[in-house]
């Protein structure tokens, strides 16, 4: 999106990285113009992505072919090629801000948009608001369709994930200010998570937003790392277990109009316990947290 706004110039490196085009010059960003340009840059990005993966897999086969493993494999090998999305909620929120609020680019002396001023409110992903949730759904489907058009090494079936593990932190460090108000260097939301602190309408609304994402276009996984404090689930353990099970049943529910969630990392803990675990790790030898599909010892 930032490349689309700046004509392919990286906002941090001040270098031409993407295809050279005329940067957007208006005082206020127009949604249709940004979306049209972003679509073209997604074509370019998909091609760069698949080309890089083709080279990687070819060179891996050439120099590090897993002969012993393949000898034990079924004769007919079905190959897939895993692609992925990072920063989905940033992109959806940015498009939402451009469409429903007024976003003014702030340009440097070279005319490069390096910051954005937002006037007004805009719907944010994670609150079960179709205005922005539909944008997130569209981005997942749109990018996968672009990848599917491209040739893959050994005719592998391309797949896509909305799963970052911890790379959302690294990608955020390399990305400048975005039209949703996120500051340069700040982490993206992990996986399919809403941006930090923006899911204001509770757990059900947040889970519902993520459950709308189309697994048919992201068969490599859609990961939501879901954290909630114990008291929000009830007053005692039995009530908490029942309520958490109900939330999960709703998230994974499938019907004609919604595929339902596919992957949920659940953390039930409070801030005080985590702070105490940092100060007194010997009291919590088994404390484990979920991070994007992995279970990690808190004090490891």
From TrEMBL:
<dbReference type="Pfam" id="PF02901">
    <property type="entry name" value="PFL-like"/>
</dbReference>
<dbReference type="GO" id="GO:0005737">
    <property type="term" value="C:cytoplasm"/>
</dbReference>
<keyword id="KW-0556">Organic radical</keyword>
<feature type="domain" description="PFL">
    <location>
        <begin position="1"/>
        <end position="183"/>
    </location>
</feature>
<dbReference type="InterPro" id="IPR001150">
    <property type="entry name" value="Gly_radical"/>
</dbReference>
<dbReference type="InterPro" id="IPR050244">
    <property type="entry name" value="Auton_GlycylRad_Cofactor"/>
</dbReference>
<keyword id="KW-0012">Acyltransferase</keyword>
<dbReference type="InterPro" id="IPR019777">
    <property type="entry name" value="Form_AcTrfase_GR_CS"/>
</dbReference>
<dbReference type="InterPro" id="IPR004184">
    <property type="entry name" value="PFL_dom"/>
</dbReference>
<keyword id="KW-0808">Transferase</keyword>
<feature type="domain" description="Glycine radical">
    <location>
        <begin position="190"/>
        <end position="300"/>
    </location>
</feature>
<protein>
    <recommendedName>
        <fullName>formate C-acetyltransferase</fullName>
        <ecNumber>2.3.1.54</ecNumber>
    </recommendedName>
</protein>
<dbReference type="GO" id="GO:0008861">
    <property type="term" value="F:formate C-acetyltransferase activity"/>
</dbReference>
<keyword id="KW-0963">Cytoplasm</keyword>
<comment type="similarity">
    <text>Belongs to the glycyl radical enzyme (GRE) family. PFL subfamily.</text>
</comment>
<feature type="modified residue" description="Glycine radical">
    <location>
        <position position="293"/>
    </location>
</feature>
<dbReference type="Pfam" id="PF01228">
    <property type="entry name" value="Gly_radical"/>
</dbReference>
């Amino acid at each position: 999106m930032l490349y689309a706004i700046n004509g392919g110039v990286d906002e941090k490196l001040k270098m031409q990285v993407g295809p050279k085009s005329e940067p957007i010059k208006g005082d206020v960003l127009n949604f249709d113009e940004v979306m049209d340009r972003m679509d073209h840059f997604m074509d370019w990005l998909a091609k760069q992505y698949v080309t890089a993966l083709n080279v990687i897999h070819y060179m891996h086969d050439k120099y590090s072919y897993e002969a012993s493993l393949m000898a034990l494999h079924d004769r007919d090998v079905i190959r897939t090629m895993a692609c992925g999305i990072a920063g989905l909620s940033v992109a959806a929120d940015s498009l939402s801000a451009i469409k429903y609020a007024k976003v003014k680019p702030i340009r440097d002396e070279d005319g490069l948009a390096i910051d954005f001023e937002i006037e007004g409110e805009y719907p944010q992903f994670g609150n079960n608001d179709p205005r922005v949730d539909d944008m997130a759904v569209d981005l997942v489907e749109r990018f996968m369709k672009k990848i599917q058009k491209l040739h893959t090494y050994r005719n592998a079936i391309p797949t896509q994930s909305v799963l970052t593990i911890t790379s959302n932190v690294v990608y955020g460090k390399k990305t400048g200010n975005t039209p949703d108000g996120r500051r340069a260097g700040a982490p993206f939301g992990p996986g399919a998570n809403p941006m930090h602190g923006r899911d204001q309408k509770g757990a059900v609304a947040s889970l519902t937003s993520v459950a709308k994402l189309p697994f048919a276009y992201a068969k490599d996984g859609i990961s939501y790392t879901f954290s909630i404090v114990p008291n929000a689930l009830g007053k005692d353990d039995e009530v908490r277990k029942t309520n958490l099970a109900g939330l999960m049943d709703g998230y994974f529910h499938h019907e004609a109009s919604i595929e339902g969630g596919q992957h949920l990392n659940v953390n039930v803990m409070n801030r005080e316990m985590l702070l105490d675990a940092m100060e007194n790790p010997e009291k919590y030898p088994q404390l484990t947290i979920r991070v994007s599909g992995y279970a990690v010892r808190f004090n490891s």
